[in-house]
Specification:
Elements: E1 2-3, H1 6-21, E2 30-35, H2 37-43, H3 56-71, E3 78-81, E4 86-91, H4 96-113, H5 127-145, H6 148-157, H7 165-173, H8 182-196, H9 200-216, H10 221-232, H11 236-250, H12 254-261, H13 263-266, H14 272-291, H15 294-310, H16 319-330, H17 339-355, H18 361-364, H19 369-374, H20 382-392, H21 395-402, H22 405-410, E5 415-421, E6 426-433, H23 436-445, E7 452-455, E8 464-470, H24 481-492, E9 495-506, E10 516-527, E11 530-535
Parallel strand pairs: 2-4, 8-9
Antiparallel strand pairs: 1-2, 3-4, 5-6, 7-8, 9-10, 10-11
Length: 536
C-alpha cells in the first residue's frame, strides 16, 4: 500500500476543480492510496479502515474473503473512508482513464459524506486517527486483562446494532444553537399549556405576536420575542434548560444504559470494561449513517461520475471501455437489487420531476392522465432539488417518497417470485407484481432495520435488567436470544429479562385453509447462565 504518485495526484486535483465547478462541495485535503487486490480483501472486514481495532471476527472474514477470491477472482475498483481528511483506495490495475472516472465517483461520495444530515455527527471527526487510538487502547487492555477484553467486545457487539442512532441524532439536534425553533416549540407546546396553563385565546395572541415580529424583522424576531417572554416569565429559561437536559437524558440505548448503570461495571476492578464498551458503541454510531444511505449514496456517486466523466475531454478514445464499465456498475438486475442502479435512477427521476415542476401541489391534484403527461413548467430546478435530496434524504425517505407507479413503469421494474418446479427439480422465477406499492415494499424490506429495544426503568434494579422489544411486525431471531442474554447477564452482573413478541403459526385443519398467525407476548429470563421462557 502506498500513496498515489504525483502524476496521478495531479489528475485527481484536476477532477476536484471540475467537480466543484459542477456544484459538489468537499474539503480540499484528501489522501489516496494504491493497493493490490489482496489489500482490498484484507481491508474489507474492517470496513476498509486499516486502523480499526483487532477482533477475531475480522480474521475469520479475511480467510473467507481469500477463499471467495480464489473461486471468483475480481478487480475491486475503489473504496473511500468517511474521515477527515477523506481517504480512498484504488486498485493498482486501474488505467488512467478509469481512475479519472473513479475519482469523480469518489469525490461525489466525499461530497455526500460531508453534506448529508445523516452524517452530521461525523463531519468534524478524523475517524481513522480515532480508530488508531482505540486500537492501541484495546491492545494495552489485552496485555493486562487477556481474553476478557475479547469477551467484553463480543458481548457489546451483540447489541451494537440497537444503539439508537436516530435518538442519538435527535439528541444532538435538540439544542438551541443547532435547532433555533426548540425554545419556540417548548414555549408554545409545553410552557404555556402545561406549566403556566394560560387560556387558549392568550396562546393565540402570543402566536400572533411572534408571527408579526417575524414578518417585520425575521433575523431578530426570536431575540425580541423572548426578551419580552423572559420579563413576563422569569422562570422560563430555567424551565427550558431543565426540559432540554431531561430530553437529552431520555435518549439512552441499551448499551449506554448498561455502561452507565450496571452494578457490575461500577466496581473499580471492572471499570476498564466501560472503555471497551465505549469503543464498540462509538464505532457502531459512526457507521450507522453509511448503512442507512447505501442506495442514495451510491446513486449520487454514480450520477456524478457519469455526468462529469462524459463531459471530460479525457474520455476521448475510451468511450466504449467506459460504456461497458458503467453498464456493469449501474445495470438494473431482473433478479436481486443493485443499489447503484436503483439510487441512480431515483435521483434522475427526481431531477426530471423537478425540471418539469411536477413536485408540486398543482401537479398532484390533477386527475387527468393526459394533463399529467403534458404538465411541464420547465422550471430548471432539477439540480437544485437533487442537491437538497443529497442533504436531507436517506434510503428510506428516498424510496418512500419517490418510488411511484410512473417510476416503476418507466424502468419496467417488477417484484420477482419463485417456486419449485418439482417435475424438473429446479427453481423457477416469475413476475409476481408490477405494482409500485409492492416494489416499494420490497425495497423497504431490503433496508437495514434493527429491532427497537429499550429498558423499562420501572422494572429494572441492581438485581434485574428488564428490556422491552417494541414489536414492529418482525419477531427477534430466536436462536440468537440466549447467547445475547448470556453476554448481557455478564455485563449487568445479575438477572436479565427480555419482553418480546413471538409469531405463532396455527396449522390449518385442512389443506384448503390458509395458516393463521397469533401474536404471543413472551418473557425471556436468564439467571446464572440458564435461560427460561414464559408466556405473558
Amino acid at each position: 500500500m502506498e500513496l498515489i504518485d504525483q502524476r496521478t495526484k495531479k489528475i485527481m486535483e484536476e477532477c476536484k476543480v471540475r467537480a466543484r465547478d459542477a456544484g459538489l462541495s468537499f474539503d480540499n485535503e484528501t489522501l489516496e492510496y494504491i493497493v493490490t487486490n489482496k489489500d482490498m480483501v484484507d481491508l474489507s472486514p474492517k470496513v476498509m479502515i486499516p486502523t480499526l481495532y483487532d477482533y477475531w471476527v475480522h480474521d475469520v472474514e479475511v480467510l473467507k474473503g481469500h477463499g471467495k477470491y480464489k473461486l471468483y477472482p475480481n478487480n475491486p475498483y475503489e473504496t473511500v473512508i468517511n474521515s477527515r481528511p477523506a481517504i480512498s483506495f484504488y486498485n493498482d490495475n486501474n488505467p488512467d482513464w478509469m481512475n479519472i472516472m473513479i475519482f469523480y465517483h469518489v469525490l461525489a461520495h466525499i461530497d455526500f459524506f460531508q453534506n448529508n444530515k445523516m452524517f452530521e455527527n461525523t463531519w468534524n471527526d478524523d475517524f481513522v486517527g480515532k480508530a488508531l487510538a482505540d486500537k492501541r487502547l484495546i491492545a494495552n487492555l489485552r496485555s493486562e486483562h487477556g481474553r476478557w477484553v475479547d469477551y467484553v467486545i463480543e458481548f457489546s457487539r451483540s447489541i451494537d446494532n440497537i444503539v439508537g442512532y436516530f435518538d442519538y441524532i435527535s439528541a444532538l439536534n435538540y439544542n438551541t444553537k443547532l435547532d433555533p425553533t426548540a425554545a419556540i416549540t417548548f414555549y408554545f407546546d409545553v410552557f404555556l399549556q402545561e406549566i403556566v396553563k394560560v387560556p387558549g385565546h392568550e396562546i393565540f395572541k402570543e402566536i400572533e405576536r411572534y408571527n408579526n415580529l417575524r414578518d417585520s424583522n425575521k433575523e431578530q424576531a426570536e431575540s425580541l420575542f423572548f426578551s419580552e417572554v423572559k420579563s413576563k416569565y422569569p422562570e422560563f429559561q430555567a424551565k427550558f434548560e431543565k426540559h432540554s437536559n431531561k430530553r437529552e437524558k431520555e435518549f439512552v440505548d441499551v448499551l449506554q444504559f448498561i455502561h452507565d448503570n450496571s452494578p457490575f461495571l461500577r466496581k473499580e476492578s471492572n471499570s476498564w470494561m466501560k472503555l471497551v464498551m465505549n469503543v464498540v458503541r462509538n464505532t457502531s454510531l459512526y457507521f450507522q449513517p453509511q448503512i442507512r444511505t447505501k442506495i442514495i449514496n451510491e446513486g449520487w456517486a454514480s450520477y456524478w461520475h457519469d455526468k462529469l466523466f462524459r463531459s471530460d475531454p479525457r474520455i476521448a478514445g475510451h468511450e466504449i471501455g467506459y460504456a461497458k464499465l458503467n453498464a456493469g456498475v449501474t445495470a438494473l438486475r431482473r433478479v436481486g437489487l443493485n443499489p447503484y442502479a436503483i439510487g441512480l435512477r431515483l435521483i434522475e427521476h427526481v431531477e426530471n420531476l423537478a425540471n418539469k415542476g411536477q413536485i408540486s401541489r398543482d401537479f398532484q391534484v390533477l386527475d387527468s392522465f393526459q394533463a399529467k403527461e403534458n404538465f411541464d413548467r420547465k422550471t430548471g430546478k432539477g439540480q437544485e432539488t437533487i442537491f437538497e435530496l443529497r442533504k436531507h434524504f436517506s434510503d428510506f425517505t428516498l424510496i418512500n417518497s419517490y418510488v411511484s407507479q410512473d417510476f416503476v413503469d418507466e424502468h419496467n421494474l417488477f417484484v420477482v417470485g419463485q417456486h419449485l418446479d418439482q417435475s424438473r427439480n429446479v427453481i423457477q422465477y416469475y413476475v409476481k407484481s408490477r405494482k409500485a406499492a409492492d416494489y416499494k415494499k420490497m425495497l423497504i424490506d431490503s433496508l437495514y432495520h434493527p429491532p427497537r429495544i429499550s429498558v423499562n426503568k420501572a422494572k429494572t434494579s441492581d438485581e434485574n435488567l428488564y428490556m422491552v422489544h417494541h414489536f414492529e411486525g418482525k419477531q427477534l431471531i430466536q436462536q440468537f436470544v440466549p447467547d445475547t442474554l448470556l453476554g448481557l447477564e455478564f455485563l449487568w452482573g445479575g438477572q436479565v429479562q427480555l419482553e418480546t413478541t413471538d409469531i405463532v403459526v396455527q396449522k390449518p385443519q385442512n389443506q384448503n385453509e390458509k395458516p393463521k398467525y397469533e401474536l404471543r407476548k413472551v418473557l425471556y429470563t436468564i439467571k446464572d447462565k440458564k435461560v427460561t421462557k414464559q408466556n405473558l
